[in-house]
Amino acid sequence: MADTKEISSAPTPAPSLPESGEPSKDVAGLTFARRGEQVDESTGDVSGFDAERMRARSLLTADEERKLMRRVDLRIMTICSLLFLVKNIDSDNISNARIMNKGTPRNIMAQLNMSSDEYNLLNVLYYVPYIVLEAPSNLLLKRFRPSAWQSRIMISWGIALLCHVPVTNKGGIYATRFILGAFEAGMFPGVILQMTYWYRPDEMSIRLLYFYILGNLSGIFSGILAFAFDTVSGSRGLLFLVEGLITIVLGTAVYFLLPDFPPTAKWLTEKERAFIQARLPPNAPRASEMNFKWSEILDSLRDRRLWLFTLIWATFTVGTSGVRFYQPTVIANLGFTTIARAQLLNLPISLLAIFVIGVTGFFADKGTIPRPLYPLGVFAVIMACYGVLVAYPSNGAVYAATLVGNAFTAAFFPLMWPWRVQTTSRATGSAFSIGFVNSYGQIGGAIGPQIFRSKYAPRYRTSFAAAMALVGCCAVITCVTWYVTRKTEADTRRLKRARVRAERKGLAVLDDVVDRDLDRKRGGDEESR
């Protein structure tokens, strides 16, 4: 492995042109090579550079790289974004079904003879298998190929949705929601894991921006579907039937269309396959690492950053999932209009979420401001909105606060995942760490709705106060995590800016991010022994 010297924190000046085939350094200590040529072997002192894996890093020109990555985006991110969109629509259907035909014998709660608190258990049963199965699912995706595994996941959960149609009692709906959660588990962390085989951490922000924008269109589509079925037929069974069939069709297409790993991409040339793998950082997983390694899992479990990020995910989702789950109900209880039209009041929340994701993601991708400041800003806005929900119970204030709070909630995840991925390592370790954090983040989906119990209705002041306190705890943990990961986070942004400047001169940066936060921790552990 390459030397782990520190990358200078000084601004990187414009690099000078190196000789053909020979890398050259600038005054900040970064090493550059001409694009369109293979790197010379004299790179032993380049920070984070593994000559055996990365010599092809400068093979393509900047224009060729842009065209190549657009092709990769089209094939991978388009399909993965559709997966996320359908998954969110299918997850939201139980919330929308709750207020379809409200106050009539055809309402799902009346048909299944369920109380509000019993209905809350549906979310618990849905998320429990998520918590247990997401990390194992990611390890299996690594073994069976993303296209095959994601196809299996989608077809399975589509069948589970179809099983919702004939349900006539609460035991049946409990069983189908549990099975749906078990079959869906692994889809999202599988997408994040697959991205690490194709993209650098500093590139993930802009890709996740598109991914989450399309995913949040689910709020629009699910609201329109629920409005249509409530208006035309009032059938919640038809809602589940249509969504289940769409999921199965898309899952079948995924098997044939979703690329797996760079070395197996037949639509790329040999030169392009080598380049994509060479541009990844030294800690990125590689398709050649097919063996399961317990040592990487144990190393991940010993890394305090895994637990800090897990706490961030858990406290945030507990503090916000309940609000999202009850969003249609809270709006319906405001008495604005008919129940069917109340479904449409959810649409502006999705539109604002898309706008917030786009703006925050655009600026975060620039790398000029420390990434943790963005989620901290999101927390501040959410807590302010929850404060309004506690203190000002008027209809207009509740709707406005719900609108802004849930929109900013959606911006959290695309801001956080690139930061999390910066600190994962190797194939098994990355698969486990990504699945582990996302799985225990699902605790919020199980616990969050329990904060919104029927005894707190209709204004849920106590519920919103508890949610606000949890988001505040999340902000504190985020600050601690920022301190622990500060060097890796700063190096990632610094190299991002250096690559942009080098690209304008037709150069490639050979240096890469070395996990200095982990190196420092290990050094301290050794000194204490």
Automatic annotation (TrEMBL):
Keyword Transport carried by entry: yes
GO MF term set: transmembrane transporter activity
TM region positions: 178-197, 209-229, 235-258, 306-325, 345-364, 373-392, 398-419, 464-484
Record carries keyword Transmembrane: yes
Membrane topology: Multi-pass membrane protein
GO cellular component: membrane
Protein location: Membrane
Region feature (Disordered): 1-47
Superkingdom to which the source organism belongs: Eukaryota
Main location: membrane
Pfam family, one: MFS_1
UniProt keyword terms in alphabetical order: Membrane, Transmembrane, Transmembrane helix, Transport
PANTHER family per the UniProt record, alphabetical: PERMEASE-RELATED, TRANSPORTER, PUTATIVE (AFU_ORTHOLOGUE AFUA_6G08340)-RELATED
Name this protein carries in UniProt: Major facilitator superfamily transporter
Species: Colletotrichum sojae
